[in-house]
Please model this.
Amino acid sequence: MEYNSLNTSWHAIEAAEAAKKLCSDLEKGLDSAEAEKRLLQFGENKITSKKGFNAIKIFFGQFKSFLVLLLIAAAAISFFIGEGLDAGVILAIIILNAMLGFRQEFKAEKAMQALQKLAVPKAIVVRNGKEQAVDSTKIVPGDLIVLREGDRVPADARIIESINLKTNEAILSGESNPAEKQTQKIFETAGIADRKNMLFLSTTIVYGRGKAVATATAMQTEFGKISAALQAIKKEETPLTKNINDFGKKLAIAIVAICIIIFFLGFFAGNNARLMFFTSVSLAVAAVPEGLPAVVTITLALGMKAMAGRNALIRKMSAVETLGSTSVICSDKTGTLTKNELNVEKIFCNNSFFEATGTGFEAEGKILFEKKHVELEKQPELELLLEAAVLCNNAALSENNAVGDPTEIALLALAKKACIEKKSLEKEFVFLGEIPFDSERKRMSSVFESGKGRIVFCKGSVESLLEKSSKIFLEGKEKPLSKKDFQDLMEKNDLLARSGYRVLGLAFNSLSKRSHSLAFESPGKDGTNSIESELVFLGMAAMIDSPREEAREAVQLCQKAGIEVKMITGDHLLTAIAIAKELGIMGQGGTAISGAELEKMSEKELEEKILQISVFARVNPEHKLLIVKALQKKGLTVAMTGDGINDAPALKKADIGIAMGLTGTEASKEASDMVVLDDNFATIVSAVKEGRRIFSNIQNFVKYLLAANTAEVLLILFAIVLEFFFGNRGWPLPLVPVQLLFINLITDGLPAIALGNEPAAKDLMLEKPRKKSQGILHNTISFILVSGIIGAVFTLVSFRIGLMQNIETAQTMAFATIIIFETIIAFNCRGTKNIFQINPFGNKSLVLAAIVSIAALAAIITIPAAGIFLGVKSISAAEWAIAIALALPAMIIPFLEKPLQGKFFRNSNAKSI
Model:
């Protein structure tokens, strides 16, 4: 019988029906012939990937940027006009940037390879009625799989037998707590995290044993679907890449237009056509900010280094800048916003609520009643509850180490706060046996021998214990458990659950002599039932994964900075809401939805409601991707955190994919832009702040480079215009091509790099995130134009004064004036404040760069050999004074450009470049 029922909701049908649909025998499994037939039909159980990437293609892809193409053209032109040194420098910059970009992209493309590394090499299946080990790639739908503790699941499968079976599904759900498994069918709309009767490819068996029938293999598995989604996602360009490309295109158009104008004006003014051609071309080369890619690369690299020192490892250089534009952070809960350490905060016993202080697994803290320290000798009900919590427990807790289930560790930490130690109790209570926890009974029992006889301690869900309890321990005595008591206790349980707590009930019972020889390992036998019957209910312990203190502060900082934080978790909705409210993520007007509710929404509905939703709980892998897409359609720059394989598609699609360094899978790290080494949300916010600083600095040095280059272009343009209208009246070119190239490649470079190292402004995180449409030149055009005009005019004045001596003196004075002028305006590019409002030594790198630039200028003018190379000569002290004085107006540029910015440039700068 041919099997083709791939689309069945396996979790929603009984195990026997699932086996029937799969045409599989629950005892004998498949026969070898049928397995071979299905292998041909469905193919090998492998996660396939797209075709291998081409290293050469990746390398040449680094030259797609328009600005890079413009630089290549500038290098070619420089070589053509005989400036081989300049051409070599430009090409070296281009190749260096290409190599850095290639290295990052090549590394990022390993994401799919990391997915394939998780394939299972061998698996145990039942074929022809016998267990046998087969290559996991040969498993087919319908195979009967045998699983034991430590095994990795080789395919998606419907559980048909579960003996205390627990799996680690963090690789899919992101939640570290073991998932308890069962065999009963589950409602059809259950999300992946709620499908207790299913096993999933590449998850791990951490407890118990069981059997399951394979329902999907290879790309049809949940893991395979994630892999396919990851391959289908095309990573969009970062805002920085878009800005630089747009900037390069518009700059090229402007340069070409100006150079054509200069050529024809100079030619019609009577200059030699060849001279004007070389002058125009030299000016074009000078106008291109050759140092921009190099300075951007250096600034981003320094940013990467700074972030690494704060536990944020940046994998893709462009991500440094993109972080600064982040407008929404989608963060996982467990381990990122919380400590991933359960902490008992409330205890209910003897009809009273007690509170426990302290955090996580630390034993430091107290147990309080009505805000007063509890004395156990006066609270025998609480003491017995704590003893039950310690003895019915398989975990171990010491000062330096915690081993075992997080729930049990939390109970040990609670008891330590009351000075109750497991080692001390084990001297009084001798362990006899245990009935392990299972998902059907929802409880665990441990039997001990003590001086008072044999006793059983139980812990589990409150409801399961109350159903087996006939008494309650109140005021130091065992009293009958009435229906009203039962109802009141269930209401208390529900109250705690709605507050986000994980609630455990605790009970005990004294055993009769005829129960002494029970087989504790046989949960279903009559003797076992008698152990877990007629229990005395002690009370309940309510625990929670405590939020990180620094996460609260980080969320507040995000809110001040206009960055929205959304919690996306695989945990329960009530728990997620409670944590979100405590952290301040979910305030008034915020809503929370589950993955099941999200699934019912259309993409349009989600897009309309996405901004109001603060918490997404019980999400599936595809849900996270939908959330990222909906936010991006709103024009937001999205940072998405994750640690499981399920997060990889969303990490790749997000503007900033952030993987967890401690708990993250290799696939999530390879798909990410950044890895948080300490899994801390506060580290992410710190990286966002650094990203803002980096973009601000990039904007500052771009403003500086363009202001300087504009001054040089306008200087030549004004001189040629004057020559055109006042021919033969002493207006030759104030700077020759080699001087222009020297200024642009040498003196502009050092201050620009120094501006990239500017410390963060104190109010940096009080600004709103910049929009994606906000370019590099936002609110800078007026500064650039005013700087260009003033620099050109006063340099022309210096040049004209020098012409009273000779052309060499005039060009030398113009050369000195414009270099000093550009050095001064560098200080005016340190953020939004003017040169008189800042600490001149606040950026020591810029001070050093200014000293080096002025020293180089003085050396070139005073050293004859250097002067001959650049066409300058020594000038007198008076001429030096004139050159310096005519450069000083650079200090008042901010006062002149501010009114223009508000009047003429308010709207024109908001978009595009």
Remarks:
- The domain at 318-337+548-679 is CATH 3.40.50.1000 (Rossmann fold).
